Amino acid sequence: MERDKLTRARRWVIKIGSSLVTAKGQGLDREAIADWCSQIAALRAEGRQIVLVSSGAVAEGMARLGLKKRPTDIHELQAAAAVGQMGLVRAWELGFEAHGTRAAQILLTHEDVADRGRYLNARGTLNTLLELGVVPVVNENDTVATDEIRLGDNDTLGAMTANLIEADLLVILTDQDGLFDADPRSNPDAKLVSEASLAEPQLVAMAGDSKGVLGRGGMRTKLSAAHIAARSGAATVIAHGRAPDALLQIGRGQSIGSLLKPAQGVMAARKRWIAGQLQVRGQFHLDEGAAQVLKAQGKSLLPVGVRQASGNFERGDLVACIAPDGREIARGLSNYGSGDAQRILGARGDELAQRLGHPAEPELIHRDNLVLTG
Ligand SMILES: Nc1ncnc2c1ncn2[C@@H]1O[C@H](COP(=O)(O)OP(=O)(O)O)[C@@H](O)[C@H]1O
Ligand SMILES: N[C@@H](CCC(=O)OP(=O)(O)O)C(=O)O
């Protein structure tokens, strides 16, 4: 997708990082928020639909509670997020009100996108809000999120939101002009990548995991977010949130920030949901033959090609498929819990019922529930 195609991008997810929203942790930057709201209002007047993903709950909570350092105690962190989220949504609501636009708060955890029913619910609600002309303001539900159910950073949350609503464009506003060929904080000569295909392998080496004091992910999670967004066909633009009219410039197809273009075809919605799950519960270690067959798209994983199963998982859990060289090549939903899986490893189709003592499904992972990852 080239820049001028962005003029026609209708559905946008716009993610704004903590350091931008809170003026580097000094408290909510209401002027900047008012400016983004007026740009978003102008984009909406052009007929675009916008979902906002706003970070800043923890940073604002810290400012309000007078905490100098990000709390390490989980409950203190969650308390800070709870205090800060109030200020965050209040500021966005006021900002949008000035343009006669309604906003809505959506707080999600990883469980909400991992559970199929809740995923469909979140999708339905977001789509309904957009149809009603409301701007959803999304954040992670930090107050209840523990590591087990945490997405962890809002770049990933923004990308998953783009998948949920099948957005045309994910915009990530941050405190740098975009993706540079090295971290500009430590390399003053670093050059901006103004446009790239996500297939280009050198991008990964460029994006470090170094980040600002308040940021969670750095550039690495932004690049990975672009890959996730591409699964549903969305392009990603990473740009400086304080560049004048940054959002409007993007909408006019001007060359601002870094445009990262999807490289492969769109993944079916159900497979996207599978690929978006973060909690892998176990591993199937494949033999060479099975690894080859899986890589040739469209085949199920059969017990005969699996040498070993590790982890403690139940039927329906996400399991990674590991090639003999140790690399993950696919993941999918197992038809068997780890106990039964152990019993049928290496078995041919006609041996399965006998080994288990009851009629059995022929696949360990059916092709409809399998996505290639490597
Ligand atoms: N190749 C790179 N190009 C640009 N920024 C990079 C790169 N590698 C690392 N970074 C760092 O990523 C930071 C932005 O990420 P982060 O602090 O998480 O921001 P945000 O709060 O907006 O999510 C930049 O300030 C920069 O120091
Ligand atoms: N949910 C957290 C944001 C976490 C996060 O990813 O922050 P950032 O890297 O600044 O986008 C909060 O509101 O504080």
UniProtKB/TrEMBL annotation:
<feature type="domain" description="PUA">
    <location>
        <begin position="282"/>
        <end position="361"/>
    </location>
</feature>
<protein>
    <recommendedName>
        <fullName>Glutamate 5-kinase</fullName>
        <ecNumber>2.7.2.11</ecNumber>
    </recommendedName>
</protein>
<feature type="binding site">
    <location>
        <position position="55"/>
    </location>
    <ligand>
        <name>substrate</name>
    </ligand>
</feature>
<keyword id="KW-0067">ATP-binding</keyword>
<dbReference type="InterPro" id="IPR005715">
    <property type="entry name" value="Glu_5kinase/COase_Synthase"/>
</dbReference>
<dbReference type="GO" id="GO:0004349">
    <property type="term" value="F:glutamate 5-kinase activity"/>
</dbReference>
<dbReference type="InterPro" id="IPR036393">
    <property type="entry name" value="AceGlu_kinase-like_sf"/>
</dbReference>
<dbReference type="InterPro" id="IPR001048">
    <property type="entry name" value="Asp/Glu/Uridylate_kinase"/>
</dbReference>
<feature type="binding site">
    <location>
        <begin position="174"/>
        <end position="175"/>
    </location>
    <ligand>
        <name>ATP</name>
    </ligand>
</feature>
<keyword id="KW-0963">Cytoplasm</keyword>
<keyword id="KW-0418">Kinase</keyword>
<keyword id="KW-0028">Amino-acid biosynthesis</keyword>
<dbReference type="InterPro" id="IPR011529">
    <property type="entry name" value="Glu_5kinase"/>
</dbReference>
<dbReference type="Pfam" id="PF01472">
    <property type="entry name" value="PUA"/>
</dbReference>
<keyword id="KW-0547">Nucleotide-binding</keyword>
<dbReference type="InterPro" id="IPR001057">
    <property type="entry name" value="Glu/AcGlu_kinase"/>
</dbReference>
<dbReference type="GO" id="GO:0055129">
    <property type="term" value="P:L-proline biosynthetic process"/>
</dbReference>
<keyword id="KW-0641">Proline biosynthesis</keyword>
<dbReference type="GO" id="GO:0005524">
    <property type="term" value="F:ATP binding"/>
</dbReference>
<dbReference type="InterPro" id="IPR036974">
    <property type="entry name" value="PUA_sf"/>
</dbReference>
<dbReference type="InterPro" id="IPR041739">
    <property type="entry name" value="G5K_ProB"/>
</dbReference>
<comment type="similarity">
    <text>Belongs to the glutamate 5-kinase family.</text>
</comment>
<dbReference type="InterPro" id="IPR015947">
    <property type="entry name" value="PUA-like_sf"/>
</dbReference>
<dbReference type="InterPro" id="IPR002478">
    <property type="entry name" value="PUA"/>
</dbReference>
<feature type="binding site">
    <location>
        <position position="142"/>
    </location>
    <ligand>
        <name>substrate</name>
    </ligand>
</feature>
<comment type="pathway">
    <text>Amino-acid biosynthesis; L-proline biosynthesis; L-glutamate 5-semialdehyde from L-glutamate: step 1/2.</text>
</comment>
<feature type="binding site">
    <location>
        <position position="154"/>
    </location>
    <ligand>
        <name>substrate</name>
    </ligand>
</feature>
<dbReference type="GO" id="GO:0005829">
    <property type="term" value="C:cytosol"/>
</dbReference>
<comment type="function">
    <text>Catalyzes the transfer of a phosphate group to glutamate to form L-glutamate 5-phosphate.</text>
</comment>
<keyword id="KW-0808">Transferase</keyword>
<dbReference type="GO" id="GO:0003723">
    <property type="term" value="F:RNA binding"/>
</dbReference>
<feature type="binding site">
    <location>
        <position position="15"/>
    </location>
    <ligand>
        <name>ATP</name>
    </ligand>
</feature>
<dbReference type="InterPro" id="IPR019797">
    <property type="entry name" value="Glutamate_5-kinase_CS"/>
</dbReference>
<dbReference type="Pfam" id="PF00696">
    <property type="entry name" value="AA_kinase"/>
</dbReference>
